[in-house]
Specification:
Low-confidence stretches: none
InterPro entries: Glutathione-S-Trfase_C-like, Glutathione-S-Trfase_C_sf, Glutathione_S-Trfase, Glutathione_S-Trfase_N, Thioredoxin-like_sf
Radius of gyration: 17 Å
Shape: globular
CATH architecture of the largest domain: Up-down Bundle
Number of helices: 8
CATH class of the largest domain: Mainly Alpha
Number of domains: 2
Protein name: Glutathione S-transferase
Bound molecules: glutathione
Strand order of the largest sheet: 2-1-3-4
Mean pLDDT: 97
CATH topology of the largest domain: Glutathione S-transferase Yfyf (Class Pi), Chain A, domain 2
Organism: Aquibium oceanicum
Oligomer: single chain
Distance between the termini: 33 Å
Largest sheet: 4 strands, mixed
Length: about 210
């Protein structure tokens, strides 16, 4: 498998999942800051010009965070990261969709790229405030549903945690947001795992 990522981007959640699965893969860096997602070779592989993408051993390419996470977890069931049963399965989809479609796309996109939402620079602070509000509210919802769980679906890590891993990395390590205690503690547990430490190292992420 070839895994396409950009350092510190949402692909870091899939990177985390791959390390947790401990399966062989080749990581290929596509630096968004240098526009490498628009180079013909990458567009040929993923016309969406986004990371993450996963080229599987049969040559087919998977895109979209939740689809990649789903395929990885269910392709290696012996690793225990695929949710068991219908209820856990739909809860995993529910949380991944919330992390990607709401927290990332609605919230962080406004914080990181305000110009995509308002052409005038005078409006950017307002757009970013709105993004911060969306993210903060969403983590409040996550906190309520989380309770005293160790991981988002209960006692065991699952594919769903990989989506929260990346949005929490952005919220706590990048934006230094003040989040509910149970959510911050949960991220501290994820961040302390050997898989996260390896991923941060391999992506060249340096903490201040
Ligand atoms: N819906 C996509 C979102 C992927 C996405 O937005 N990736 C960002 C990095 S976090 C990207 O590749 N951005 C490149 C660009 O916007 O040019 C998914 O679930 O994978």
């Amino acid at each position: 498998m070839k895994f396409y990522y950009s350092p510190g981007a949402c692909s870091i959640g899939i990177h985390f999942l791959l390390e947790e699965l401990a399966v062989p893969y080749e990581a290929v860096r596509i630096a968004i800051k240098d526009g490498e997602q628009f180079k013909p070779d990458y567009v040929g592989l993923n016309p969406k010009s986004k990371v993450p993408a996963l080229a599987r051993d049969d040559g087919s390419v998977l895109t979209e965070f939740a689809a990649i996470a789903h395929w990885l977890a269910y392709s290696f069931p012996e690793k225990g990261l695929a949710p068991s049963g219908l209820e856990n399965g739909v809860r995993a989809i529910e949380i991944m969709d919330y992390a990607v479609a709401t927290i990332h796309m609605q919230g962080f996109s406004r914080l990181f790229r305000p110009a995509k939402f308002a052409p005038s620079e005078a409006d950017h602070a307002w757009v970013q405030d709105m993004g911060r509000e969306i993210v903060t509210k969403a983590f409040g919802v996550v906190s309520e549903s989380f309770g005293d769980n160790r991981f988002i679906l209960g006692d065991r890590l699952s594919m769903a945690d990989s989506s929260l891993f990346y949005v929490l990395f952005w919220a706590l390590d990048r934006q230094k947001l003040d989040l509910p205690r149970n959510v911050a503690d949960y991220y501290a547990r994820l961040r302390d795992r050997p898989s996260s430490r390896k991923v941060f190292h391999d992506e060249g992420i340096v903490f201040a």
